Fold this protein.
Amino acid sequence: MNKRTVRLGLNLISAGIVAITLSTFFNSDVTQLLSLTISGQRRFIVFGLFCGGLCSGLGIMIALAGALNSRADSRDIRLLRSMLVLIVAILLFFTLFFRSINSPQQPPLRPGETIII
């Protein structure tokens, strides 16, 4: 196993998951930060999903190629940190996903509406 190539693949998978998480759950925060319009927000979401899928798919292929490649000189390469980052990114994504399903969504106020307490 070529650990350097596997580590690169794991890092690409983590980057893909982070891009998908940013584009799906934090898109309003990012668009406010960048002062994007509604069409810019849509483009950001599509771009984030595209880049996340591309990075993750490429990372899977690279990690698989590194796992199948036999090389003996990569003994000093550690994969623990990359694995932990990947696990944390996956756990964060699923935590946010389940919270978004279970939290009630309130419709935004229309112009002229008041809040009744």
Summary: The mean pLDDT is 88. Residues 3-101 form one domain. The chain has one domain: 3-101. The radius of gyration is 19 Å.
